[in-house]
Write a structure and sequence with these properties.
Helix content: 25-40%
Shape: globular
Distance between the termini: 29 Å
Oligomer: single chain
Strand content: 15-25%
CATH superfamily of the largest domain: ATP-grasp fold, B domain
């Protein structure tokens, strides 16, 4: 029975975890390039250095002694986000969307005091949220105000777009929509909705929550069939540039839409998950093999986008 299921998935072009790890991550991602994307602060600075748009950096706290300057750092900011540099899976991210003096409020309306924020950052520094529990760095950035076009597809949090890029070519994409189940976070394992996107148009293919296909957002009741991501080509181009500045052959680029600044690179992942295939109803393998078959791959980013638009639409056979 297991062999039949495995054969069926393989015939459908589904990329498995072992094949992803051996044939793509290990083969196309050099170990020396991992530190750049395993540290969100380094990724942010590297992207900004090549003029790619990212959320504005407000400050960095590297040691407990710097917590003395936290009040000064935050005094002119009504909203902000605190992140661990080496956190994973959305762990350790604190979002503040308004304040009243020394009282701060999360998107849910929950109150958090200045002292509690200090303690939270102290936990980040001690490695509570980092990979392997190693000491970490906390950084503070501006709160992205989500584009109103996508606001109706989210509960409290900010939806983001994950684009898988192989050899600089965008090959598959999905929108991750926060829900009440996911506590306003775009974390699929916690109950966010994954919406597969047609790579050629930025429109919805299907939506999945807890491994079940759904038609409406569970909280806002908005139909996913009407979804269309604005500035789609611009998003694909940003994702293509992530290959250029990280030199990773296989990656996931996470992008958010700010109502004023437009698309912003949130982070880059050297080990993107495979749920995107479930959300899209399409296997990754044929698209990856398509790119591997190309004799020439050092194309300009616009040429790579054009190729993806032509060959990887939902109706394409390759």
């Amino acid at each position: 029975m297991w062999i039949n299921r495995h054969t069926k998935l393989r015939n459908a072009g589904v990329l498995g975890l072992n094949e992803r790890n051996v044939s793509y991550i290990s083969r196309y991602n050099k170990r020396e390039n991992f530190p750049l994307v395993d540290n969100k602060l380094k990724t942010k600075k590297a992207a900004a250095a090549v003029k790619l748009p990212v959320p504005e950096l407000l400050g960095v706290i590297e040691s407990p002694a710097q917590l003395k300057t936290l009040s000064t750092l935050l005094e002119n900011h009504q909203s902000f986000v605190i992140k661990p540099a080496r956190g994973s899976g959305g762990k350790g991210i604190l979002v503040i969307n308004r304040r009243d003096g020394e009282q701060f409020f999360k998107p849910s309306g929950a109150l958090i005091t200045h002292n509690e924020i200090r303690h939270y950052i102290s936990n980040i520094l001690s490695g509570v949220y980092s990979l392997g529990g190693k000491p970490d760095i906390a950084f503070i950035e501006t709160l992205v105000r989500g584009d109103q076009v996508l606001a109706k597809y989210s509960h409290e949090g900010l939806p983001d777009i994950r684009i898988i890029v192989f050899q600089g070519f965008p090959v598959m994409a999905m929108l991750r929509c926060p829900t009440s189940d996911s506590d306003g976070k775009a974390n699929l394992h916690q109950g966010a909705v994954g919406v597969g996107l047609d790579i050629s148009r930025g429109t919805a293919l299907k939506a999945v929550q807890h491994d079940k296909v759904i038609s409406h957002h569970p909280d806002t009741r908005v139909k996913f069939s009407d979804l269309m991501i604005p500035n789609w080509r611009k998003l694909l181009k940003l994702a293509g540039h992530c290959h250029d500045f990280t030199e990773l052959g296989y990656l996931g680029c996470d992008i958010v839409l700010d109502e004023h600044r437009g698309p912003l690179i949130l982070e880059v992942n050297a080990r993107p998950g495979l749920f995107i295939q479930i959300a899209s109803g399409i296997g990754l393998r044929p698209r990856l093999k398509n790119i591997e078959s190309l004799v020439q791959k050092d194309w300009h980013v616009d040429e790579r986008i054009n190729y993806a638009l032509e060959h990887f639409s939902a109706n394409a056979t390759s």
